[in-house]
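Follow-up to my earlier ticket, as requested here are the two runs.
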Amino acid sequence: MKALSLNLESSSKAKYVVIADAIRQAIKQGQVAPAEALPSARKLAEQLNTNRHTIMAAFAELVAEGWVEAKQRSGYTVVASLPIQSSQNINKVDTKQTQFKWQFVRKGIMQNPIKASEFKYNFAGGQPDLRLFPFDEFRGYFSQSCQRPQFDDLSYGDSRGLPELINQVSTYLRRMRSITDKEIMICNGSQEALYMVSQLLLQAGEKVAVEQLGYPPAWAAFKSSGAQLIPINQDEKGIIPEHLEMQLKTNSIKLLYLTPLHQYPTTVTLDAERRMKIYQLAAKYSVAIVEDDYDHEFHYKCQPIAPMAADDPLGLVIYISTFSKLMFGSARIGYVAANQDLIQALAEYKTLMNHKNNVLIQQTVSRWMKEGGFECHLRRMTRIYQKRRDITVNILNHYQNLGLPIKFKNPDGGMAIWLDMGKSIFGLKEKLYAKQVYLQTQLEFDLNHKNNKQENSAFNFIRVGFASMEEHELKQGLKLIFSEVYGAELQERL
């Protein structure tokens, strides 16, 4: 123990007695636990601005009373069995009678006690393979940031983010996503961006149109402002513009939240025709579009359709993305691209929350991007994830060839496959826990599923994330899933 906060009372007593009283009171109140070491006499003398002999006298008093014991070469420690066993409760308020009752006016997202990363077979849809991240290379750039720190950036400053990183992200969006006329702000992940947008643009009771099958954390962000969610129907091509128009006519909708590329969770990419119809409707009804482009990096067949933000003459698209899928979630590097007025408002609001992101991480990522390591890692992971997608498709084809009524489309990009199991998946997620398999099912993504608590054949889909596992893990994990769903029927077909 290096220090101990002591309350020295004003008294006519000798100073060593006052110090002994203060240490005794600290022990009674539980500041120091039984058998725990006390500060050395030298350290305590420096802390209390007195001489070492006074402290030694105080310790001797406590040893005589049975509160402290001296151990050779270990200094002084609190005795394991205190003179008064109930001493820790002395002078404390009766908590049973006076326990404070909190009255919460907001709710957050309930933390799931089950962590996907702890499972042997992790099919979480957006989980990268962290084993393949170039930590040694990244550490080198981080070391540079520490060895040659930019001191001006380490103090409080612009909440928009580090200018060097903003410049790198802006260049990346211009070259890779055709976004040229937006201001950039760096955030602690895309979730912070969604939360800030909802707090700035929504009031209680206002409405947000969302995909009926969608991303629950985004829904939670909108609900945190008191907004009401309006589900928009989807088909095999994505969100249906005609249903959106009907909802716009009958509801005063403020925002439209979309994942047009690799729709979450169905992986469908919204085609150019529907994107144009949706944009025209948003313009007609003065609705801002929040475009969440969470895994644009990974495309395998050809270049994906440019984001809606790339063709936004009215400036009504708020583009949100993240590096979590390429790096790792705890890096907390996300960004917003929008017009200048909104970025300014977001920066001002962020100052109220946490002022700015981790500067050293921003400097490191900026160097990594500038030196080309970012794009090199991106190319490597794209090749690996494409191979893992092909492996997963081959495995699913095998089960399909056995006569199982499963259906799926081979996605052109992304990190997951939306798989129709051909049977109800109620309770499947929980059953797989015992087999060390983590899986996400349709029920988790359906805005309306709480209205239907009956087992229903309409809930047949699972989201098969393939990016985080190697071939043998994919094979074994999928075998466990199909065995749980089809059981004896599968054994007969093998």
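Run two:
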Amino acid sequence: MKRKILIYSVSFALLTTIFQATPAFAKPPVTQVQIDETKVEINKTVDQIDDLETKVQQLDDRIIIGMEKSKQLSDDIKAQQGQIVKTNAEIETARKDLETNKDYYSERLRTMQAQGKQSIITYAEFIVSSKDFSQLLTRSTAVMSILESNTDIMKALAEKEATLKGSEQKLEKELGKLKNSQDELAAEKKQIVADKQEITTVLAKSKDTLKQKQSQLAYQQTEKDAQDKARQEAEEKARQEAQERESARQVVSERSSQQAPESPSQPEQNTPVNNPSISDAPQETVSNSGDVDEMIAYAKRFLGVPYVWGGTTPNGFDCSGFTQYVFRSIGISLPRVSRDQQDVGTRISPYNVQKGDLVFRGDPAHHVAIYIGGGKVIHAPQTGDVVKIATYNPGKYTTAARVLH
């Protein structure tokens, strides 16, 4: 009997030693405050990224509009140069006509002079040398006719030449203005590209910062979960050990008094309860046309196509070039740029969209996307990116348009 009492006494001592052993953590504890601070930093970084992406889209839009203007200027310059070539040809023709008429009337004068008694005579001598009144009248009339005709024709030709030269100067001046506008547009595009590169660099750094903060948050959350779990396990272990110590005391007491120890009762195990997660997925909207699903399926064929300034084909799209190309597949013609597409169809709230609606950022718009349902859009975001599906946040969009009714 003493031996059994000794065994229980030793068991009790061992349990007490285990209970008194405090677990040591090699790493400093992570607090909820630290986690909350990291979440705030992540939200700020996300907002910064959103602002930077908006600026990039605005610059992309300015470049697209500039490319359209540049194309129009090139067409105008080509037409102006053609007009200048035509005017120069007319000036040359007028000069030749002037010289031809000068030669013609000079030859007529020399012929009339050759009929006189002297080799060279003036108009007056030619008239005075008439033999009779009839000849005098005839010669006077002929000379006056020649002089008058010569003067009128020469004057008309000279005026035509002067007019053509004036037109040429005007055309050259207009051409100079067009070329200046083209140079200014090229300089503006160069500056926009430089600004965009600077913003893109900041954007890339912000995205790296976001990844670091997200990794930091994941690490903090993992550490805190492990600490919470360890604390819960320690508390549970302490509770069980307390029960076991109490049972051991009771056994020792009973064995001492009754010499018939009973086996210590096993403590009940608490099973943690996992609460089911609640889905926050947005409610699916109803399609507004039989063509919508066909159009969206067609749009998805171009996922991964690179963003290209001025791109309107599957070789590369900009945002409005993509929507224009996709809508054309179901027989709907949209304007070229996003600010003009914004005026097509019926303008609606970004919070009341259906599949197939166009959604815009900015007013006038600098970016356009297609809402495809399920809280998603498909679009060509910006340079350096590709056609992709993204989460739709109506608070980030300014207007929407329903083209399919």
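The only thing I checked on run two: Strands lie at 312-313, 316-317, 346-348, 358-361, 367-373, 376-379, 388-391, 399-402. Let me know what else you need.
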